[in-house]
Amino acid sequence: MSEWVISQEWHRYSAAEHAMWDRLFARQVAMLPGRVAPAFLDGIDVLRMSKPGIPDFDELSERLERATGWSVVAVPGLIPDEVFFEHLAKRRFVAGRFIRAPEQIDYLQEPDVFHDVFGHVPLLTNPIFADYMQAYGEGGLRAISFNSIHRLARLYWYTVEFGLICDQGALKLYGAGIVSSSSESVYALESDSPHRLRFDLKRIMRSKYRIDDFQQNYFVIDSFDQLLRETLETDFGPLYTELDSLPEIEVAEILADDRVITRGTQARGT
Ligand code: HBI
Ligand code: FE
């Protein structure tokens, strides 16, 4: 229990709980082709996630370990930052084991097994993204000593949770918070309301975020390789010091030097 890991107790799920997973799964899988990064759908296949019912973490981990050496372990809910980072650094993804109630089908604040497993785990079959998540965990452990967890949490938020990717000139989803949400999957790509900005590590670490509504600013990467490379090449220590002297950026704010993606620039992929 020191690492907060609990047994999933897969056999204890009720028929209604499995049915809730199937309902959420069917809804997302019907909408995601053409909208989500191809690597995500590859992951669904590699992990045989279309098998009905809530996945058994042991079975899932066996397949995931074969792909990238990651595994999935159950935790009781949100766990302390340093424990969370430690698991990621060791290529263990922590997942909630409970599933949302029918009245929470469209929104809940705490991550349930659908968000954690459907949203996060497929991309962990991608070797580059898998390495990024490990590097993130290692960076998190270092951020603690710089009092800068909030900055690294923003990086997680705007990439792992709410990231967009430009795939051959077209915007696609990859963030787990988007791909596990039916309404935000459409909004993030198609609404004229949010801004879509080119990925900028420093800018992201200055940007506040909101947890109770759709995002107003999304950040767009060119590739998972860009994400991994920039994270590995950055010396975060001096960067944290530099960022402490710069103002924070509000939720929907746009700066003069932000590289905003419009439908025209998107088509040219520049
Ligand atoms: N715990 N179970 C769980 N899931 C998370 O996503 C999580 C957490 N604890 C801390 C945490 N995330 C944050 O520190 C990161 O988002 C940075
Ligand atoms: Fe999440």
Decide which structural class fits the backbone: alpha/beta
- Estimate the strand proportion: 5-15%
Count of strand segments? 6
CATH superfamily: Aromatic amino acid hydroxylase
Total helices: the number is 13
User: Would you state the CATH class?
Assistant: Mainly Alpha
Instruction: From the alpha carbons, calculate the radius of gyration and give it in angstroms.
Output: 18 Å
Provide the low-confidence segments as ranges. none
Shape: globular
Kindly report the CATH topology: Phenylalanine Hydroxylase
Average residue-wise pLDDT? 95
Q: Name the bound molecules.
A: 7,8-dihydrobiopterin, fe (iii) ion
Tell me which CATH architecture applies here.
Orthogonal Bundle
How many domains? 1
Could you give the order of strands across the largest sheet?
A: 4-3-6-5
* Element string (H = helix, E = strand): HHHEHEHHHEEHHEHEHHH
3D architecture notes:
The chain is an alpha/beta fold. It has a single domain (2-243), classed as Aromatic amino acid hydroxylase (Phenylalanine Hydroxylase). Helix content is 48%, strand content 10%. The strands form two sheets. It has a four-stranded mixed beta sheet. A hairpin with a 2-residue loop joins strand 3 (164-167) and strand 4 (170-173). It starts with 14 loop residues before the first helix and ends with a helix. The model has no long low-confidence stretch (mean pLDDT 95).
